[in-house]
Each structure stands twice: as C-alpha cells, then as structure tokens.
What does this fold into?
Amino acid sequence: MNAIGFVKEGKYIGLRELRENLSSVVKSQRPFFLTDHGKPVKAMISYQYLLELLEMLDELKDKALTQKIAMGRKEYQAGGWVPARSA
It folds into this structure.
C-alpha cells in the first residue's frame, strides 16, 4: 500500500466505536483514524506498514538514490526507459 492508499483505505472511527470493536480493529490490516468529535487525532496502522513507512523514510534520506529516481522518472517521461527484462 502506498501513502495515498493508506489514507483512502483508512476508516475513521470514534472512541466509543473503537472501544466496542477493539479486538477486530487491532486484528485488521486496514488503517484506522481515531476521531475526537469528528476530527482525526490518531492514526492506527499495522506494524508491517509502519516498517514499510520507516524504510521509505530511510530511502528518502539517501540523496544519491533520490537523484537516481528523479533521473529515471525524467527518462521514463521522455520515452528513454528500458524494460526490466532487458536490463
């Protein structure tokens, strides 16, 4: 799941509903946004997704990798891409 999918697939849930359904919420892989008077205040995500997010943040810190990705995107947009099978 990417970051946009995380938000789109997330379910907003109030504290009362969370208390009533805590077991199923905890077992779910779906992200939940805990609300206070209808406003999101906390995000609940699976441990696996948290690890993926942390890995992405580490990759963003790598300036050389970020530059290669940007260059690859430009080449792809210009039609200069090479299929993975050929590489």
